[in-house]
Amino acid sequence: MQSGARRRGAVVAAVILAAQLAAMSVAAKPSAPRVVVSIAPVHSLVAQVMKGVGVPELMLSAKSSPHALALRPQQARMLAKAELIVWIGPAFEPGPARAVAALGEGAQHLTLARVAGVRVLGARPGGAHRHEAGDASAKKAHAKPPVGALDPHIWLDPVNAKLWLDAIALRLAEIDPAHAPRYIANAAAARAEMDLLIAELRTQLTPVRERRFVTLHDSTQYFEHRFGTHSVGSVGARASAGRVMKLAQELKRAGADCLFVEGRRPAPVATMLAREASLRIATLDPAGAKLTPGPGFYSALLRGVARSMVGCLTAAGK
Ligand SMILES: [Zn+2]
Description:
Elements: H1 2-28, E1 35-37, H2 40-49, E2 57-58, H3 73-81, E3 84-87, H4 94-102, E4 109-111, H5 136-142, H6 158-175, H7 180-205, E5 212-215, H8 221-227, E6 230-234, H9 241-254, E7 256-261, H10 268-276, E8 280-283, H11 297-316
Helix pairs in contact: 2-6, 6-7, 7-11, 9-10
Bound molecules: zinc ion.
């Protein structure tokens, strides 16, 4: 009898030990993988896929330029600790490119520009589509797009975003199989919402599709290709007075109605061009600088761009 009790005691001890080990391994392994995402629009998509499991970290705030060339030490540390890095790719985000390359082949990263079916567009050439940026960090990235340079504003095509949702879910399911069903289901729900958003924006934008606009910084190409709206060029914040006058004549011929700028205060070039070519000035925020990062960021960003276009172009038509 005694040996039986002892055996039972040993079994109980073994069960307790096993439970303790299990608790320790749970504590050692966080329930969600540590995911770092480069920019806010993509972070929003990852946050939608991870809903109910965890929250991804955002490397570049929506206020900093998505075209920034250098990483701050804190951002480099963030990348080094990540279990998965989700970014667009080296041609699109020069900032993290070197850091991601330095992490080596073993590091997990998902390069969204390489996802099958994603639409990648070349930067529009000079002339009426000269590409210069309004803010200082973007200026460096954009001042003279080399021949064959890509247009980095790839997140403004919601069909690209839809493809990314699936790619994100599949990669997360690989590195965190325990939550795979959740990731897949979240991605399917987000994709369905994206379809509704695309239909909503298409309906809103259809009446202004034949109107023409100009931007100070050429950020709208992907959006235009998806929704059929028409930019007739971009100005560049540092264009000379002579160039602005010449462009104004071209824009009058092209019948442009609106000039979209990004900051609160339009550059002197914008004011001059608007006056010479009789354009209304309106703001358009292609990176979501005023929005809060999170699952709802992406749809708010696209609705904001559409609202800017519809607002100015509708008023201009009156
Ligand atoms: Zn840009």
